[in-house]
Batch of 2 targets.
Target 1
Amino acid sequence: MNLMYATGNLTEDAKVISHPAKGDQAERDQVVFTVAENKTKTVTEFVPVSVWGQKGFAEKVLPFLTRGKTVHVEGKKRNTEAKTGSNDVVYHGYVLAMDSLFGLKLLSGGQGGSQGAEPASAAPAADPAPAAQGAPDYDSFDDDIPF
């Protein structure tokens, strides 16, 4: 199995592609987005992600997958391919493909997105900043340390 992991920020809001039923398969939704993964201070890798699911699942996750959100995704690396005029197969690159949402984790609230206000459950309430503390008074420590 060819597993791939990526952690980074979404480059834009996720998009939904609806696929009609084929043969014995039911209708399915595909959510696509790109994760910008910083490898070093000057090198950023852009990882295309595709999440497949049953019809209707996309509406539940789209409010959370907006530009700037930090996510961790785990899935299979699948090559993208196309046929040329002479029926030769040309590989363009790869996509991180996920068959369920179990490999998707939201890590931060990010900077919001273009879809308006976030749902109440999207980000926990921010805690107030802790008060600044001065340097500890080392003379007040107990010297009876048993080790």
Note: The mean pLDDT is 75.
Target 2
Amino acid sequence: MFLLKSISDAIYDNDYPYDVMGIICEYVPHKQRIFCGCDHFIILKNDGTLYSWGNDGFGQVSNTPKGSGFISVSINGNHSVILKDDGTLYSWGYSCIGAFDIPKGLGFIEVSSGGWHFVVLKDDGSLHSWGSDDYGQVSDTPKESGFMEVSSGGWHSVALKDDGTLHSWGDDRNGEVSDTPKGSELI
């Protein structure tokens, strides 16, 4: 993540007229290309466009954005969130609790969908969450920066910090939070 920030600073400090995420994404292979919801699918094609099929009961197929520049997709059942190469987010599908309350602005580099909540990682290492907060999966999102990766489950999330430590929050009925390994020896 600090690599992205360093590249960004280097390019913008030298007045290059390029979109940093677009440049990076052109050379870095996408981690995942096919995504499954409850009963619909989305493919992220090599040219940055999306193709979807399946049940369209909540517009999860017909409202799939057109155009290109998409670099990541995350689905939670019948709702999808995408990340564009300019660092912006877009969402569509089932209007679950707070699903359309996506953060505005630029600088998002990763998105993860839980059961009824969403978490995004910004290029400054901060996390932002929205959606259902039944188990603190939104309100307990760590406020500090220095995060490199995030992943969400049903009602909980975990994030990896640049010092190798893991931070979990949300539902702890099965030890999702309290059993999170301590220290940095796992990474």
Note: The longest helix spans residues 2-13.
